[in-house]
Specification:
The chain has 11 helices and 10 strands. The chain is of the alpha/beta class and about 350 residues long.
Length: about 350
Amino acid sequence: MNKLFKSFFALTIILSMGLFVACSDDDDNNDDRNAVKIVKKNNTALLLCSFGSTYQQPQATYDQIIADYKAAYPNTDIYMSFTSRTIVSRVYAQLGIAYAQPDLWLTAIGKAGYENVYVQSLHIIPGEEYLSLMNTDVKKNFMIPYPDVVVAKSACLLETEEDVDAVAQILYSYYKVRLDKGEVVALMGHGNPETEYTHANQRYAQLETALQELSGDKNIFIGTVDWGDKMFSHVRDEIIDFAERNGKEYSQVTVNLAPLMSIAGDHAQNDLLGGLEDGQTMAGVDPGEDDWEAEYSWTLKLGKLGFTISEDGSNTDENNFNVVGLADHKAIRTLWLNHMKEAIKNAESRNEQMGE
């Protein structure tokens, strides 16, 4: 589906006196458009890195994340960045607001003379966006030009198998009552389509297995937007199998849908929970459509099959919004904070790494 940016909002953040400055060019590769100015107040900068979103509702989630890090690290200058250059570009093109990328923040942070730099990935799996952030933006383009700066690189949510188990426990506890009633939970991750990120995509399969072991029944499933092994068709077939092996009519099966992403942004509100677009009708909804050419949301396709979609957590109306992203769970945010604690213990400069 991928109908991006149906609603836009005036997105502004002023954190630790960091100012985003808009210019006139909307070229994706023009760094001047997203110029960053920093007023240095402390010797340590902490950069939060999310894929990003143009939607209004996730802003409250970002605010909670920022508040957590401000409380945990009061003597730091904290900044938020979006790793998706596409989102940054489109926000600027539509609104004229510059929302800086990690490489631009890091350049400004380096020039400002910080002694310590902490970088927190808010990605879910160690896939393309995460590896690009840590290996290119941080390790290559920041640590080499600034070899004396001590850097902490804090991991994404599902970096290790231990992280998978921890997240499984949190999500199982949240959905336990519904699972115990025989309802189904289906979570949508993003995933990477390229085969070189199979190791990262496998975290979804591991998490699904861990959740099913905890539930004691095969009634919680994970699909993705971009990983071919687990897309909507995987979730659809598993829910059908659940209904049939339990002797239930499809209408007797309640399905709870939620994003397995840090925030409830575009994919959650469109690909997962979106309604009919202009010119579309329920008669045209095809639950068997090709995953890679999907025009209809999971909600519409499962509804067309006859399943009952839970209203709890699936309302995208701005006045009654109740969709829960991963970072809306305090316990999930705590896992990221714990990653940062470990990263700071192991923080070092490039010169220290090289033994100089």
